Amino acid sequence: MADSRPALPPLREVIARHGLNASKALGQNFLLDEQLLDRIAAIPGPLDGQPAFEVGPGPGGLTRAILRAGAKLVAVERDGRCLPALAELQEAFPGQLRVISGDAMQVDAHAEAGTGAHIIANLPYNVGTPLLVGWLSADWSPLPWWATLTLMFQMEVAERIVAKPGTDHYGRLAVLSQWRSDARIAMKVHRSAFTPPPKVMSAVVHITPKSAPEGVILKHLERLTAAAFGQRRKMLRQSLKRLPGALDALATLAIDPQRRAETVTVEEFVEIARILSA
Ligand code: SAM
Fold this sequence. Notes:
CATH architecture of the largest domain: 3-Layer(aba) Sandwich
Order of helices and strands: HEHEHEHEHEHEHHEEEHHHH
Bound molecules: S-adenosylmethionine
CATH topology of the largest domain: Rossmann fold
Number of strands: 9
Pfam family, one: RrnaAD
Catalytic activity: adenosine(1518)/adenosine(1519) in 16S rRNA + 4 S-adenosyl-L-methionine = N(6)-dimethyladenosine(1518)/N(6)-dimethyladenosine(1519) in 16S rRNA + 4 S-adenosyl-L-homocysteine + 4 H(+)
Radius of gyration: 21 Å
Shape: elongated
Structural class: alpha/beta
GO molecular function: 16S rRNA (adenine(1518)-N(6)/adenine(1519)-N(6))-dimethyltransferase activity; RNA binding
Helix content: 25-40%
EC number: 2.1.1.182
Domain Ribosomal RNA adenine methylase transferase N-terminal: 36-211
């Protein structure tokens, strides 16, 4: 871990001094407990000298923790009110932080943060899932451009990411998150840890990429899971009947067409998608 731990003003003071009243529209629920923030920044593993990318630094709580861990960080913030507070962090950690003023949905994170970057964020709830889907859908040959994802979500989204077959939360997001990554809940975070507290609990999900299974085209896996989970209570023979080749693939793999999507494992979806991709 890097040695430099400059004395920084308390986050509450930063928020008050810069008038950062939380905006609901921007999904602003700030974390102010520096010990908690250091624990989140430790989840990806050693960051000293590593490239990192943060969405929505806000007043800079998680940003400080990532910088204390020694990362070279690019952070994208949509709320211009936060920029003066982030400029103070740039001064406190010379050469370590670059801030982009803009919408993370429009920013090319790979081009900005570089290959091998750790993506770490307390995500705004309204763009969290689309950003995750974008990162999980990256080119993967044999690994994606990013090294790890460490992301705070509302608990319900976190549960959908790590869900196992046979559970209510299991669906398209679980398959997309797990077919070529390990995804786990690294930390549950009580709503009272945020200012202002959101209505629901949150969790930090940690995602580590693996080599993608060979011969599977993402587009085919997506079409398959869209069809299967589009009618999740129906038997596969019904939900997949309009997807060319899918019922034959079930027969080839001896997967019972009377099963429902929520019982099909990630590995089975991958096997079906491999046949559809051929
Ligand atoms: N990182 C801070 C923390 O942990 O205390 C703030 C997290 S807060 C949940 C989400 C942050 O994302 C806010 O600062 C908000 O302004 C910012 N934000 C919202 N939508 C954004 C977008 N589309 N692109 C970039 N930042 C966004």
